[in-house]
Predict the structure of 3-isopropylmalate dehydrogenase.
Amino acid sequence: KNYNISIIKGDGIGPEIVDEAIKVLNSASKKCGFTLSYKEYLMGGIAIDTTGVPLPQETIDGVLASDACLFGAIGGEKWDTLPRELRPETGLLKFREEMGVYANLRPAIVYDELVNASTLKPEVIQGCDIMVVRELIGGIYFGKPRENDGFKAYNTMVYTKPEIERISKTAFELAMKRDKRVCSVDKANVLEVSQLWRDTVNEVAKNYPEVEVSHMYVDNAAMQLVRNPKQFDVIVTGNIFGDILSDTASMVVGSIGLLPSASTGDKTAIYEPIHGSAPDIAGLGIANPLATILSASMMLRYSLNEEKAANLIEDTIKIVLKDGYRTKDLASYDAKEVLNCSAMGDKIVE
Ligand code: NAI
Ligand code: MG
């Protein structure tokens, strides 16, 4: 069997980490008896430099025609002064919108092998297994009107009931396969949109009587994630809160370089690490490729139904970590050897 994978490497560490994921994908697919064909497309700063726009039509068409998309990250200082519509980040938002990927699944799982790599106490984090379900194509990132005239600037946070219903449904369906607990995070004490969010989550919850529902204000949720992360199973929240809370959750796990994600909807799904292009370490070869490799394994599981290969990759990563191999971001006292980005990919293949 062969699958067509669209590849978007992007900017900064994007090419470095995606190359390692491809290495691991090739090895796993070979072992499990299927093949992958890759086609590369441009997005972000590199697309601006090459084609003049952050999201060429060719990229949209190519990804739509593929079975799944593996994406690195985009952005960098070089493009930060461009007008908003020409910026790399605008390309990414438009890309997600075009693909209709409203549900961004961000698992935050603490590996036993890494309990000492976190800055938090082992007893606080051990066994933590959270799924952050972030709404990805609505909310304040997309709301109109938006403007900045140099004196006054504003954005609009907007969600419609159907948008909240479909992301809630995703969260409850996931919870049914997990620990049957959903915590919806909002700011309903001050925001209209959050009140609609909360009411709608409660309505959807009626269809899932086995699932325990709770609600939490986002400021408290940020605190609770660090205080006692194990209280959470599925967290469902809007675009901006999900963005921020998953970065917080990454430090429970140990490093932002560990958190993968699946962006899913009605069309081609996109698999991407939760972090950005990390310009501060780009080109140094020290980025952690595991978030991208784990994203690739989510791709095998969710889009290609190659469960065996996905498990193989995840089990191998655990062995590599158990053996004490780390990238620089995880170089705690119990590390045996600190590997660069490409050596980490090689080690997993080995
Ligand atoms: P960032 O996630 O790129 O980096 C934050 C910090 O985490 C940096 O110190 C970085 O070195 C570190 N880091 C990130 N990924 C790492 C990895 N795999 N291994 C080791 N360390 C890692 O966020 P930042 O610095 O706020 O944004 C940088 C650029 O990325 C900006 O242009 C931003 O707009 C863009 N960005 C793009 C995203 C995407 O493409 N999905 C998501 C977030 C930001
Ligand atoms: Mg983010």
Residues 126-253 form a domain with the Isopropylmalate Dehydrogenase fold (CATH 3.40.718.10). The longest strand covers residues 2-10. The two ends are 24 Å apart (CA to CA). The pocket of NAI (ligand 1) is lined by residues 13, 17, 73-76, 89, 92, 256-257, 272, 275-281, 287-288, 291, 329 (CB under 6 Å).
